[in-house]
Amino acid sequence: MPTMASVLEDPTLERHFKGHKDAVTCTDFNPNRKQLASGSVDKSLMIWNLASKARAFRFVGHQDVVTGVQFSPSGNLVATSSKDRTVRLWTPSIKGESTVFKAHTAAVRSVAFSHDGHRLVTASDDKSVKVWGVHRQCFICSLSQHTNWVRCARFSPDGRLIASCGDDRTVRLWDTSTKHCINCFTDYGGSATFVDFNSSGTCIASSGADSSLKIWDLRTNKLIQHYQVHSAGINSFSFHPSNNYLISGSSDSTVKILDLLEGRLIYTLHGHKGAVITVAFSRTGDLFASGGADSQVLMWRTNFDTKSYQDVLQQHSRRSTPDPPPHVTDIHPRGPHLHHPQPTAIQISPAVADTQSSDPHVIELGQAFHSTTLLNGPTHLTPTQAAANSHHSNGLRPHHTGSSRGEGWMGDESAGRAGATAGSQAGAGGRGRGSREEEERAQTHPLEALSGHPSCLESTLQHIVQQLDILTQTVSVLEERLTLTEDKLKECLLHQSHILKEAQSSGGRRRTESEETDGSPVHST
């Protein structure tokens, strides 16, 4: 079968994206197939446009590490979670608008949309999972049975279930209508780091700091597959939309590709220097992305299967009844696997393999130009007001969490140093191109002139913002006192008027009585 074999190629590195200044923590593809989002320890969200030579956008607004990112099903919003305790909803365009949710009382570790785009689910170090309304921008409910930090939470495809996992070594399943925990899987040797449903909602998978990956059938609540293929903790994984494959990223610096139908490892990808923190398939499965401690985002072409993933998804959508639902072992039969049984290690040198793209031109965007607050609705602010509003809403003390336990990539100093080194090297390369690019940037678009000399300017702005914050707090205290004084004055006036009325009415009664006494006849004995 020479023709089929020629189609079945190994995964290939399509592009690499350089722009983050520290470790990449999360990635997601836009359903419109035109953008890729990534979040980083450098506190920024990057939107990479997949068209060749297209510009990338950097969104600045979070005050701490961005821990999670996801596009809405329509692709017109991006949600991010952060260690600064907030969640932001962004417009993935040059407008750079964002809405802030003061989501939790500790670091937020993950954020995800429901499949209808109406709700968000967040997981936090405050041991809770919370559900939010997207359009009304409101809190809906809190799920609180975890006994330690919650690392990840996801909706089922039908929105009726939520799966969550965390440092209490459990994976919990919640009913969104009753808010009850309906199942708890506890057989983990360490923290449960990531959890997700397959595209049919019949199975959940979870990964652990103990380097294990487990898949449960939700109809029988039984463990049906258990993989131990990495040599260090797994930080992230992603189901292929056909449910035939799963990719995982690990602190052992590799991406592994599992064939779920055959129950075996088929590829090991060596593209990153340092921990791989995030992996994600595109919605159609033809691409996947990986990001890690080396500050890079790599985009790969799948090439695993001859089936058209679009056809697979259309066939799934044509199912008239969910009973019996598709299963991981019968979901979409395909031809026999043409690769050799032993795992194939693919050595990738990103600098050599990616010949198709130069580093994209990055446009800096942030709340200094556009900000939307949760309470006031969409409002366009001046740069100073926006900065003050952002710092006031997030608090001026960014939340840094530490742990006596090994925190994986989030507490790994070596990973941070690797990211910093990669960032400094990228910076050195960028300076070589020098002031000509900066001049061109200033001429082409006003938003592109944001990246000037941030160090002293940033400290000055931060000082101004602190003073504004103190003023705002002072004014609010004065307003409260003034309101209390007004209330007391109103009470006094009401009391006085009440006394006057009583006095007048009693005075009138006395006059009437005296008149009656004066006009009465005198009887003498």
Task: Tell me about this structure.
The longest helix has 65 residues, at 454-518. 43% of the residues are buried. A hairpin with a 4-residue loop joins strand 15 and strand 16 (171-175). The chain is an alpha+beta fold. It is 24% helix and 34% strand. The strands form 8 sheets. The protein has a 5-stranded mixed sheet, with no helix packed on it. Strands 22-23-24-25-29 form a 5-stranded mixed sheet, with no helix packed on it. The chain starts with a helix and ends in a 7-residue tail after the last helix. Mean pLDDT is 75; it is low at 1-8, 319-357 and 368-454. Helix 4 (383-394) packs across helix 6. It has 2 domains: 2-317 and 325-353, YVTN repeat-like/Quinoprotein amine dehydrogenase (Methylamine Dehydrogenase, Chain H, 7 Propeller); 454-501.
> Averaged pLDDT, please?
75
Total helix count? 6
What's the total number of strands?
Answer: 32
CATH class category name of the largest domain = Mainly Beta
Report the span from N to C terminus.
144 Å
Q: Evaluate the radius of gyration.
A: 30 Å
Uncertain residue segments: 1-8, 319-357, 368-454
Task: Summarize the SSE layout with pairings.
Elements: H1 2-7, E1 12-18, E2 24-29, E3 35-40, E4 44-49, E5 56-60, E6 66-71, E7 78-82, E8 86-90, E9 98-102, E10 108-113, E11 119-124, E12 129-133, E13 138-143, E14 150-155, E15 161-166, E16 171-175, E17 181-185, E18 192-197, E19 203-208, E20 213-217, E21 222-227, E22 234-239, E23 245-250, E24 255-259, E25 264-270, E26 276-281, E27 287-292, E28 296-301, H2 309-317, E29 344-347, H3 350-353, E30 362-366, E31 371-373, E32 377-379, H4 383-394, H5 413-444, H6 454-518
Parallel strand pairs: 5-30, 25-29
Antiparallel strand pairs: 1-28, 2-3, 3-4, 4-5, 6-7, 7-8, 8-9, 10-11, 11-12, 12-13, 14-15, 15-16, 16-17, 18-19, 19-20, 20-21, 22-23, 23-24, 24-25, 26-27, 27-28, 31-32
Helix pairs in contact: 4-6
